[in-house]
Amino acid sequence: MAGKPWHTGPFRASAAAVRQYAVTHPATRCWRCGLTIGEVRRHNPDAHWTAGHLVDGQVGGPLAPECSVCNYSAGGRLGRARQLKQRVKGRTKLEW
Ligand SMILES: [Zn+2]
After folding, report:
1. Max CA separation in the chain (angstroms)
2. What's the CA-to-centroid distance between 25 and ligand 1, angstroms?
3. Distance between Cα 16 and ligand 1 center (Å)
4. 93: pLDDT strictly greater than 70
5. 20 to 30 A from 23, CA-CA: which of 30, 55, 68, 94?
6. pLDDT higher than 90, residue 12
7. What's the CA-to-centroid distance between 27 and ligand 1, angstroms?
8. Domain assignments of the chain as residue spans, ordered by start
9. Is 1 or 68 the better-scoring residue by pLDDT?
10. Comparing C-alpha atoms, which of 71, 73, 60, 57 is closest to residue 14?
11. Which residues lie near ion ligand 1 (Cβ < 5 Å)?
12. Ligand 1 centre from 85 Cα, in Å?
């Protein structure tokens, strides 16, 4: 089974390096919200570092440390847009 292109190849290694850097440098700030992981966790205790795309959805594009709260909300927007397109194509009746 082939993974999504942004989950394979060079991205994987550099994403791990980005996350590792953020984890080992507590003063690292999320490029999106500008908070440290400690500040993010005051409101989202389960937050962790991810490697975020500086350009949403760009395969092989630049990465930066991004808190999971920002990353999943950005990814969720893209994912929902794709799901909506598939729903419209594959169904005559929308079910929510
Ligand atoms: Zn953030």
Report:
1. 51
2. 15
3. 17
4. no
5. 55
6. no
7. 13
8. 5-90
9. 68
10. 60
11. 30, 32-33, 67, 70
12. 28
Whole-model pTM: value is 0.64
Q: Which amino acid is at 77?
A: R
Span 24-75, pLDDT tens digits: 999 999 999 999 999 999 999 999 999 988 887 777 778 899 999 999 887 6
Q: How confident is residue 88, by pLDDT bands cut at 50, 70 and 90?
A: low
61 CA from centroid of ligand 1 (Å): 19
Report how far ligand 1's centroid is from the alpha carbon of 68 (Å): 7
Residue with structure tokens 């991004």? 66
CA of 2 to the centre of ligand 1 (A): 30
